[in-house]
Amino acid sequence: MTTATDYAKLTGDYELDPTHTRIGFVARHAMVTKVRGAFNEFTGTAHIDGEKPEQSSVELVIKAESIDTRNADRDGHLRSNDFLKMDEYPEITFRSTGVRQDGDDAFEVTGDLTIKGVTRSVTIPLSFEGQATDPFGNSRIGLEGSTTINRQDFGVSWNAPLETGGLLVSDKVTLEFEISAVKKS
């Protein structure tokens, strides 16, 4: 038997727990495989209004230099002017402009994503994974979701043609969010 979550109990301000949160991405490489990576340094806050989810808000700041694909050469290239141009644009940001409940445990968070100084509206479907009190007395919630963006829309356009046709890096990039957030006291 399942019961609906009492979201009113979750109302409050939260901070992302960076040691239990993953902000990752997936892109096709050479048209035959996927490269996965993550950003290891970020901060995030959320205000959750459990009774009126549309009054909730989210803010995320990612350090571009923290990109990690488990390959130092590739990470260096991704930080360069060919991709993230992190010396000029050290942060990737997301600021919500709207939150909508889309089912019992489903939400859509729409907001302004800024990469390389270019801002576009994106919607991230998130599923509420639950709430727990950890052994240290912290109230924490979990959310998961993903969305796909076109990196060209953000001025991230470097590529190389393959001799067999196609391109080295896909334009579509899936952003992945596995979130653990702790309620502020």
TrEMBL record:
Organism: Streptomyces nanshensis
Family of the protein in this entry: Belongs to the UPF0312 family.
Recorded superkingdom: Bacteria
Domain Lipid/polyisoprenoid-binding YceI-like: 13-182
Listed name of the protein: Polyisoprenoid-binding protein
